[in-house]
Amino acid sequence: MKQVKLWFRQALSCKAKSIESNGSAGCKSMQPAFLLSKIMCFDDLKSCHICPRECGANRVSAPGICGVSGTGVYLTRAALHYWEEPCISGTNGSGTVFFSGCSLHCIYCQNREISVGDAGTMVSVSKLSEIFLSLQERKAHNLNLVTPTHYAPEIIEALTDAKARGLNIPVVYNTGGYEKAETLKMLAPFVDIYLTDFKYLDSSLSKAFSHAEDYPEAAKSALDEMVRQCPECIFGEDGLMKKGVIVRNLLLPGHVKNSKDVVRYVYERYGNRVYQSLMNQYTPIGRFPDFPELERKVTKREYRRLVDYALSLGLENAFIQEGDTQKESFIPPFDGEGVLC
Ligand code: SF4
Fold first, then answer.
1. What pLDDT, on the 0 to 100 scale, is given for residue 191?
2. pLDDT tens for residues 23-57?
């Protein structure tokens, strides 16, 4: 594994704010039995409405649109990860858990290897809790749950158990942004940082690229809930985020306008209360006869236009990628590290 790379430049005013340093910002005390009975239970999986697809699948016996079924959790990797934004990766790395399956199915998916529901290895909830704790033991700065929503009931149970056993690092909810506010409300006692994509404001694009015409409305409502839970970004003296919201904006080739619209929307609604992360690392994965622009990388000029626009709005809290990040891969090997042992 490569050592940490500062592939982002943290722009302008990152105002570090100290918090009580018990390591877990904003975690309210919990009563596990109450949470499990009142918030979300495995019966939800018999007619699943966890994500905006609301496909109603009985996941105990058959997969939903996200591709996930059964009573276990499929993981492809649980390891220290150094390629998130600097306030997440720090120097030790982020304790990243990659879940299989996804409800979005973007045609250009950068993680297609694991976006199918049964990729990787199935683990129990108790094993998942052990994995969370083992990442803390490895000195991860935080626990980073990647594409977690379809496993929300299992994650709530595993976090309840792990926190009762001493998990106290911040929990990062790393999502594509296609979320139901109701589900996020149930996760509020457990999540400290939302690291969320905001992929589209144009529903014709979300329909064409992610088969989700309702993505813009779902993402807006989800982001409102995230900011309600984390109304400002809080950093420790070490510069690491302890609580807050980071909105990621992956620039797609030929679609600068979409990304500009997202930047403007997020800035006008939340100002500098959230961080925006402008990403240029789109990697083409194959042929797209209907969308040939997706067969190339983003140009430097396209990215520069987006960055200049963001700065012209007055955006102060942002992460900007520097150098030749387009030539590099930030996708780790999905080799079962941290899961198979
Ligand atoms: S999480 Fe999966 S099964 Fe549940 S509503 Fe979404 S796509 Fe359907």
1. 98
2. 333 333 333 333 443 445 556 678 899 999 999 99
Q: The whole model's pTM is what? A: 0.88
Strands 241-250 and 94-99: unpaired
Strands 8-11 and 171-175: unpaired
What is the atom index within ligand 1 of the atom nearest the CA of 64? 3
Among 68, 102, 116, which residue has the most ligand 1 atoms within 8 Å of its CB, making it the best to mutate?
68
Tell me the one-letter amino acid at 341: C
3-state secondary structure 144-192: EEECCHHHHHHHHHHHHHHHHCCCCCCEEEEECCCCCHHHHHHHCCCCC
Q: Where are the alpha helices (DSSP H) in 215-255?
A: 215-229
User: Mutation test of ligand 1: which of 47, 55, 100 has the most ligand atoms closer than 8 Å to its C-beta?
Assistant: 55
Q: By the 8 A CB rule, do 303 and 280 touch?
A: yes
Q: What is the pLDDT of residues 82-114, one digit of tens each?
A: 989 999 999 999 999 999 999 999 999 988 877
Tracing tokens 């509020």 back to the chain, one arrives at 188
Q: Domain limits of the chain?
A: 2-326
Q: 137 with 37: CB under 8 angstroms?
A: no
Question: Candidates 3.20.20.70, 3.40.190.10, 3.30.70.20, 1.10.238.10; correct CATH number of 2-326?
Answer: 3.20.20.70
Atom of ligand 1 nearest to the CA of 150: 1
Tell me if 234 CB under 6 Å of ligand 1: no
**Any idea which residue has 């430097």 for tokens?**
300
* Number of C-beta neighbours around residue 46 at 10 A: 12
Confidence at residue 4, expressed as pLDDT on a 0 to 100 scale: 25
* Pair of tokens at residue 263: 């930047």
Q: Please, what is the average pLDDT of the chain?
A: 86
Q: Distance (Å, rounded) from C-alpha 317 to C-alpha 334?
A: 32
Rounded to the nearest whole angstrom, what is the distance from the C-alpha of residue 25 to the centroid of ligand 1? 30
